[in-house]
Design goal:
With 548 residues, the chain is mainly beta. The chain is 6% helix and 55% strand. Strand 12 and strand 13 (243-252) form a beta hairpin. It is globular and about 65 Å long.
Length: 548
């Protein structure tokens, strides 16, 4: 059956590519651009009882993607082949499979663009619609259907789409349809352009049409579920010189789902963001309140799949291993979130700037529960919530300061201190509040024009969870092709366990090959406030990518 579906899919794609090639042959002075990529990540696993890898049924685990795009003056087309029959650890069972799950053909002429197939789209900040791909999390929630983009005049963009959302190797039955209008107001007001000011207004609407489902309140009562869930979003963005302001509000109708316990309550989200950026100085202030805004194309789903929208986390995404040990995942049922950041560069030849100048950045983020007034469970209305009131629970808090200092023409130093509160119960289900202090020092030394050395030393101290952690990394770069990386993350608080990696990387042109031996801990892998649990693993790791 799978072979038949694969052949049918490839057969359906062939006319699209033929149309695209035919269009090139009939048009004069027209160029055809063919591009693509290959990515394959493999693990030859080994069992390790100390870190709890469990047993493996497969000798090799791999996630492989091959993508091809064809672009021309009037027609574009593309397809992606995926081989995930034996996926890397941490992906849901439905993730496994292989085939061509993503393809499209797109025609564009003057101010109109029409696309058929699988598309990615985002309205506003994504509060009511965001379809995207994030391979590290196993997310690909593209809509298979049609999308039209029309620009009738300067400063006006109209979008409309409809389709069914991908869930691994199938598509959910619900139809997701929407439209957006975006206005570049400065195009019509000369005084704004003269003042170097830009004002963008947008409004969007999304409808989810989903069949009824047998959801029982108890043994005798069945829920009457809405067939249509509607959501709208309005956004205003203003920018002038160094200043930028963004205000956005979104709302959706009653949407009983697994995420909210099948309650009949509307959802809301409001956001305000202001930033300032000038040479040597930057500042950012953000606030967001969300309430019952989880939206999926299948109401009974859990995990990271089937989300129609996206609620970004107002927390800093850390790249250092210990700073990212306890990452925050956006609370889908509601939160107050704040973030503030200030950056300043002390000029050269001053007391704090020294010979080469000094950059300092201070970041603070805080996420708190919203206030809830629980209602009678028998009514299925859920809860009441006053807009400005906080709940009693703190979900996350992060205060960090970073210093970048060039000490010589060949040596750069980066220092960071971080004070973190992580509510493990709110994010993971249990574990209580974890308060930690994290110290990071990173040095980069250019030995010669072709040889560079980078080293990291990190330490996390806490009296909760697994206690203290230490981390060390050394990376030797032999430009332009080779890089050797050695690292060890050591739990010196409770388990006395080492998690080490040794990797050798070769890069040339569009090719990148990395091979090594790894031992990794279990934990959450997060991106943009969306997290997936990844179990511990050990073995030979090989990664290859090619872009052309």
């Amino acid at each position: 059956m799978r072979d038949c579906l694969l052949k049918l899919t490839i057969g359906a794609l062939c006319p699209f590519f033929a149309m695209a090639v035919g269009a090139q042959e009939t048009a004069q002075q027209q160029k055809v651009v063919l591009s693509g990529s290959i990515q394959s990540d493999l693990l030859v696993p080994q069992e390790d009882n100390e870190i709890g890898t469990g047993r493996y049924d497969d000798k090799v685990l791999a996630n492989t993607y091959a993508e091809l795009q064809l672009q021309s003056r009037y027609i574009d087309a593309g397809a992606r082949f995926e081989y995930l029959d034996h996926p890397l650890p941490g992906f849901e069972s439905d993730f496994a499979g292989w085939g061509v799950p993503h393809f499209y053909v797109k025609g564009h002429l003057r101010n109109v663009e029409v696309m058929l197939g699988d598309c990615y789209e985002q309205f506003g900040s994504g509060f009511i619609l965001r379809t995207y791909e994030e391979r590290s999390l196993g997310i690909d929630n593209a809509l298979r259907g049609a999308r039209v983009v029309y620009k009738p005049a300067s400063g006006i963009t109209l979008k409309a789409l409809s389709g069914r959302q991908r869930r691994y190797w199938n598509h959910n039955h619900a139809w997701v349809s929407g439209a957006e209008v975006e206005l570049g107001v400065e195009q019509w007001i000369p005084r704004l352009r003269e003042a170097d000011a830009y004002l963008t207004l947008s409004a969007s609407f999304v409808n989810k049409n989903e069949d009824d489902e047998d959801i029982m309140v108890d043994g005798t009562h069945r829920l009457n579920l809405p067939r249509n869930v509607n959501a709208f979003d309005v956004q205003a963005r203003f920018q002038q010189g160094c200043w930028s302001l963004l205000a956005e509000y979104a709302q959706k109708t009653q949407d009983p789902s697994y995420d909210n316990g099948y309650i009949y309550r509307r959802g809301y989200v409001a956001m305000l963001s202001a930033s300032y950026s000038k040479r040597g100085v930057s500042a950012l202030l953000q606030a967001k309140r969300s309430d019952n805004m989880s939206s999926r194309s299948r109401r009974s789903m859990a995990g990271v799949s089937s989300f129609v929208n996206h609620l970004p986390a107002f927390t800093m995404e850390h790249t250092y291993a210990l700073a990212a040990l306890y990452p925050y995942a956006t609370h889908p049922q509601g939160e107050w979130a704040y973030q503030a950041e200030l950056g300043y560069t002390f000029r050269r030849h001053t007391l704090l700037g020294g010979r080469y100048g000094t950059n300092v950045k201070l970041n603070f983020s805080h996420v708190h529960a919203i206030s809830r007034n629980e209602h009678d469970a028998a009514t299925r209305d859920g809860y009441g919530s006053a807009f400005w009131r906080w709940g009693s629970e703190r979900y996350y808090q992060d205060l960090n300061v970073q210093v970048d200092k060039k000490l010589s023409p060949a040596f750069k130093l980066h220092l960071m201190y971080m004070n973190q509160f992580y509510n493990k119960t709110a994010v993971e289900g249990e574990g209580g509040m974890i308060h930690s202090n994290i110290f990071v020092a990173e040095g980069k030394y250019r030995i010669s024009r072709r040889v560079a050395l980078r080293a990291e030393a990190q330490y996390l101290t806490t009296g909760e969870d697994d206690g203290d952690w230490a981390y060390a990394l050394c990376e030797l770069s032999l430009h332009p092709h080779w890089m050797l990386t050695l690292s060890d993350m050591y739990n010196c608080g409770a388990t006395d366990t080492h998690y080490y990696q040794g990797l050798l990387t070769f890069s040339s042109g569009g090719h990148r090959l990395q091979a090594g031996y790894v031992r990794t801990r279990s934990g959450y892998n997060c991106s943009g406030g969306v997290c997936r649990w990844v179990p511990a693993s050990k073995g030979v790791s090989i990664s290859y990518s090619y872009n052309f």
